[in-house]
Amino acid sequence: MRRSATEEGFHGAPKRLPSAATPFEPHPNKYPPRLHLVPYEGGGALAFRLPLRYRDIAIVFGILIASIALLWQIWGVSILQFLINGIVVGSIYVVGATGLTLIYGIRKFANFAHGEMMSFGTYTAYFINGILFYSLGWGTVFAIVATAALGLLMEFLVFRRLAPRGAVSMMVASIGIAIVISGFLNAAFGTSIHQYDVINVPNTPILIIGGVVVLSINPIRGILPVVVGVAMMVFLHTLLSRTTTGKAMRATADNPDLARASGIRTQRIIYFTWGLSGTLAGVAGVLLGLFIDIRPGLGFSVLLFVFAAVIIGGLGSPYGAMFGGFIVGIAQEMAAAVLAWLGDPEVIGLEQPLAYRPVAAFLIMIIVLLLRPGGLLGPTPSGERTGRRWFRFRKPALGADE
Amino acid sequence: MSVPAPIVDFVNFLIPAGIFAMLALALNIQWGHTGLFNAGVAAFLAIGAYMAAIYLTPYVAPSIVYPGHWGYAQVWQPWFGTAVAFVIAVLLSTLLAAFVGLLIALPILRLRTDYFAIATLALAEIIRLILTNAQTATAGTIGILRIPGPFDTLLPGDPDLQAVAYATLVIASLIVMFWLVQYVTRAPWGRVLRGIREDEEATLALGKNVFSFRTQAFVFGCALMGAAGGFLASHLGSITPDNFNPLATFAIYVMVILGGSGNNFGVIFGAFLYYSLDWVSVRIDDYFPPALAEKMPAIRFAAIGVILVALILFRPEGIFKEKKRTYPAVTK
Questions:
Q1: Chain A within 8 Å of B134 (Cβ-Cβ)?
Q2: Contact A205, B71 (CB under 8 A)
Q3: Which residues of B touch A158 (CB under 8 A)?
Q4: A233 contact partners, CB below 8 Å, separation of at least 6
Q5: What are the tens digits of pLDDT across the range B192-242?
Q6: Phi/psi zone of residue A399: left (φ > 0), alpha (ψ -120 to 50 degrees), beta?
Q7: B117 and chain A: CB distance < 8 Å anywhere?
Q8: DSSP H or E stretch at residue A358
Q9: Comparing C-alpha atoms, which of A143, A324, A322, A141 is closest to residue A233?
């Protein structure tokens, strides 16, 4: 009996045909479905028939939009100014957070020196721009080179040796390195506050009601960070998804031993990742210096927000860091409106209410840590459950959780 | 009676060194024995210090020149002197720090080491924000001034003699704390903590409630940090939120790792060694040219980091290794 070519397997071996008893399944890894619906076992009121990560993101966006709508109802359209500020701050955090999360993905430790790497970039650009009087563009180039070199040096001198000893050793060492860089910058540049030598541009109005500027954005301190942030996100996405190096990075992050066995030079990839992380830190540092000002402890003060962004997105997940960066930035700026309301003597009468803006970011971080210890976009394959259920009515069997 | 100058110098070295040793001992319970990376030591120190300062000083109303702060000295002054008030203040500091530690522990103590470190660091920043901005309670960045020492009413008008007595008190308290920590960590309780540090799941499999033990260790450590804060407030005489920046935390880590984490005697030795190095480096600033001398704080700062990295790289077990205890096999 002659079979058609499609029914025949390799060298004429009979191919298993799809039937009702053995349903046809495509190869699991060839075309992973972007969004396949997972039945939520157990049911319950919150049984969205969606993979958990999409549900989480939908919930976060829902809360965000609902709170913006609520604040809009109370304060009117001027609340959008906080949203604009939040997006600007958020795009700076995104650049910092992606650099941090790449290192976590490949070295599996929380790099406390990342904040000071950003400071290092800020001060390198200041050295070129504010002391040698070249343009800030040259300052950025030198900041990127210097910070990337710093990252490579850290890996070469310290983390390469500490890697076999585990994450905690590397974390403590990174704290030590942060202190060293901070002390070096203090000794070299003093403790006074500086500014970059750039032209001051007036704010561009976006919305004018009755001759009063309601919404505005500064071209240099506002639009530039957003443009650079988006450019960095596109660059990183292209690198990770379209290039061999990016594939090798993802493979090394996933399983270094297996990656090495498949012929990837993992140590080279690790050096490359440190360089990339340093590049992103340098860019973030220059943006920070532009957006805030240049002062000692700048990087460390931002480090916790960057950590919050990374944790919200899931440690080690670059896309999660992008998402988390914007969430932290927007939450922090929008919190200003709520805090100003709390500062009203008739409500609570909180003193200096606007100083508590960071608490919003930390609060979101803690909530995400408690509900989704792996973050909203943790590094798990698509469609799997990434965390525990929100409400548990019964204790699970031993070993069912984590 | 006048105290000779070298003794006053030595005593002024001994008091802060003893307080740092208390902190190192407290951190050793959390980090050395249980493996909890508490990056918020400064927060618990601050809670203790501010509690003691508020209890020991009189209420100051807000004015144009000074934001004012809470104070309870009016409550105890008619009844007893500063010595009894100091004891009560330290007890209150201990209790408050332990209470805050418990509140913090319940949600975040289940987290992994790196998440736990970030969460406690965030907590320390929140506490510092509150201390800086709740100005009518804590006097903001100016801080609480003129905190009395314990011997102000017993030995009036002689600051040198007061310092000698205070140093004696600090060292005596340190010895008591050392004995207490040594006792509990040698007991089966401490053995469980070390079991958690080495292998959490194995300890769980032995039927120990790991979360409960970690909470106990964390709260115990926080309580000792609060007590050290009480001592620190009286020693410094005035406290500001800047005294409790994250660097204070990491300096304690250097002491613990330098002395040998897990070894109670070692961490006290590490604290004294670290503080004496710091003491000497401050004293030799005068011999440098002025251009260099003004950079010295930053260089000293960097040196802390260099020591920390070098220790982790080349001698992670510290000067005094933790004793590996072996226990006789259980036989019928």
A1: yes
A2: no
A3: 309, 313
A4: A94, A98, A322
A5: 999 999 888 999 999 999 999 999 999 999 999 999 999 999 999 999 999
A6: left
A7: yes
A8: helix A357-371
A9: A322
Question: Which amino acid appears at position A59 of this protein?
Answer: I
CA dist B78 and A57 (Å) reads: 61
Provide the token pair at B164: 């000698």
Nearest residue, CB atoms, B134 vs list A179, A300, A351: A351
**Rg, C-alpha atoms of chain B:** 21
What tokens does B243 get? 């005294």
Decide if A179 and B305 are in contact by the 8 Å CB cutoff: yes
**Contact: B117, A110; criterion CB under 8 Å:** yes
ipTM of the complex: 0.90
Q: Tell me, what amino acid is at B198? A: E
* Series of mean pLDDT values for 10-residue runs along chain A (402 residues): 46 50 53 49 47 73 88 84 92 95 91 95 94 91 97 95 90 94 92 86 82 83 92 94 91 90 93 96 94 87 92 87 92 87 78 85 87 71 42 47 45
Q: Is A356 on the interface with B (CB under 8 A)?
A: yes
Q: CB–CB of A369 and B247 under 8 A?
A: no
Cβ distance of B305 and A307 shorter than 8 Å: no
Å from A312 to nearest chain B CA? 11
Q: How many CB atoms sit inside 10 A of residue B217's CB? A: 27
CB atoms within 10 A of CB B303: 18
Contact B113 A167 (CB under 8 A): yes
> Using CB atoms, which residue from A109, A300, A358 is nearest to B114?
A109
pTM of structure:
0.86
Q: Any chain B CB within 8 A of the CB of A302?
A: no
CA separation for the pair B13, B29 (Å, rounded): 25
